[in-house]
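Exercise 7. Given the components listed, write out the predicted structure of the assembled complex. Treat all entries as one system.
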Amino acid sequence: MKNYDLITPEGTKDYLFGECIVRRNIEDSLMALFKSCGYSEIITPGLEFYDVFNLNSRYFPQEDLYKLTDSKGRLLVMRPDTTMPIARVVATRLRDAILPLKLCYGQTVYRTEAALKGRSDEIVQAGIELIGSQMKMADLEVVSTAVEALRSTGMEFSLEIGHIGIFKELVGRLEVSDRVKENIRKLIETKNFPALNDLLDSLGTSHITNALKKLPALFGGDEVFEKAEELMPDENIKRILDELRELYTDTAEICGGEGNITVDLGLVNKTDYYTGFIIKGYLQGHGEEVLSGGRYDKLISEFGYDIPAVGFAVNVNAVAKVIEKYGVIPAMPRPDAIVFAAEGCEVAAIKAARELREQGLIVENALFDDIESVRAYAMDNKIPKVVVIDGEEDREVIE
Amino acid sequence: MNRPIRMALTKGRLEKDTVGLLEKMGFDCTAVHEKGRKLILPVPDGNLEVVLAKANDVITYVEHGVCDMGVVGKDTIMEMKGKFFELVDLGFGRCKFALASKKGYDFYSGYGIKTIATKYPNVARSFFEKKGMDTEIIKIEGSVELAPLLELADGIVDIVETGTTLKENGLEVIEDVAPVSARLIANTVSLKMRHAEIDRLIKLIEENL
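Answer.
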């Protein structure tokens, strides 16, 4: 029989010491940022019914979920995402709450990633959801908070903005089946120009196919809007483009040159879920986005409460990886002192240590028989002070 | 962190054509020709570094962003999938995926489940899934043509260039599965973070195809 008692499951790992400090620091600073903007934390269960994640507008493939059953045989999953549980809470317990609701969270999500790809199945996401406002100001608040979140990492960052409406409007005007639409979306998402051109050519030539062909190439800075303007076939789409341009220009102005704010009209992921702008955040040195979000006005209505929402989440583990590789790792907190109890003085030593801790010091109890071993231990662990309690007076030894 | 743009090239079948393309673009590829055992090779005049890797690894390196761009066959892309941009059809390394079996064998006859030998189980699976056909797929690492000859499999899904190997072994193509050629891929973040540099390279590549 093969025993797995010495290893952790594929896609998981133990986080030790410095890794914990880096991760907690990121979580703490993100949560502090969110709370300073008036967001309140919520914690949802790690286990949810599968049905919460099996919606029309957001579909998690079965094979990506960790599944189990409850005592009645009903299908449960380890939470693969926090936005949908929050939508569930909003549509139920918070249904009568005053709007807008500003919610934040920092919790683990679980998804099965392909094995042996160096990916983690268990990641911490910290994010915000702003619920019940369709105002331009709500969009700007979320996008600028995303920029702040990226900036708080201290690494070189880039925030990219897109708008799903442009793709949806364009493709909605093609008279083709949903399967072809989905194919077009996939090819735009992967910037697969050759296959996209072939597919669209087979549908004939029009303003629409022409604009769709260019969509994945329309990314970069301000100049994207000039190019896109000419391609857009009508006022409806131009209005979306103007909206996006305003969000982009305002965000760039708020950043004032710090970080890199860009636009990509070819951002067309999760089309059914997002209904407005989409953002992705990148850190230099990491091959995938570390932040993603956008406006999703139709999700909560699937739980029976028709209310708009906008938000984003940061992949804390990804940020931690970048900081561990390229950033400044905070020093491990070391004990300021170690207290050694001579035989019979244990109670006095515990009391003495407690007094020192009340002064704000980190204090260890020595767990050795003789003072020489304590000294050696203090030396090895760079503990500056050894306090000896032997029933007489305090003796302090500076190492 | 301004390392040169790193490009992963597929060793072997596509290597010569890719290096030829780089030279046509005006890059000095002496280091690539005289590579010896080195794995990361500088291309001196281009702010470019070349990594030679096996096809599957090209995708892995590009997905993780440790290589910004890659040249890899559509065959590998179809089998591996993954998250990256597939930017340019480079046109060389042209061949196709095809379903083949023993000459004269009526592959689609009968209701028994067919056994398929292949190096590309995902490609084979999705091909038959689209047809609504249940098949048993067996992964073979070496010459797939052997499997039907040894009567392990009813057919094979494999890359066909000229068809000579098939013919010499008494096999024939039953149906084309998909065309294959070399593709230029890019990491999703690199394309954004180093847009100007990568864009310049893509333009240069397209001009020299």
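Discussion: The mean pLDDT of chain A is 91. Residues 267 and 288 of chain A are 14 Å apart (CA to CA).
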